[in-house]
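User:
Note these tokens:
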Amino acid sequence: MRRSNRRAPNRGTRKAAPPPQVLARVRRQKDGYLAARRQHASEIAEDYVELIDELIREQGEARSVDMAERLGVSHVTVAKTVQRLRRDGLVQTQPYRAIFLTPQGQKLAADCRSRHDLVVAFLRALGVREETAQRDAEGIEHHVSDETLRAMRDVVSRTRRDR
């Protein structure tokens, strides 16, 4: 009879529970990762409604071809994302026509624009060049908490008062 080189599972020993401070750190880390994943999920929708709003303001309409060019993606990617936005009630579309924001989409676009402008103003108050602040704000605006936005708003207000 051949013996296996594998050991039998260790059934009698249990790992000791981690100390409370470790558990608290793990919970905070988990909460941070969960929040970041939720923010990533909404980031694309926010970018799209913000761009649609911008195109309507600049050109009177938002077309898929213009969106694809500005986002650096294919028209197929735009079409799929617009379908999802339509399903989520953020845009209205008609075949071979421009894309329009619903009232819900308009509100989301206004909220995104407001967050973006605040982050840019905050970065500018820190001395960041306009071009860099605009580019950096594009990522930060999606991942910043309301608490942090309030703090940014306070800093921007103080900076403007001190001038």
In short: The mean pLDDT is 87.
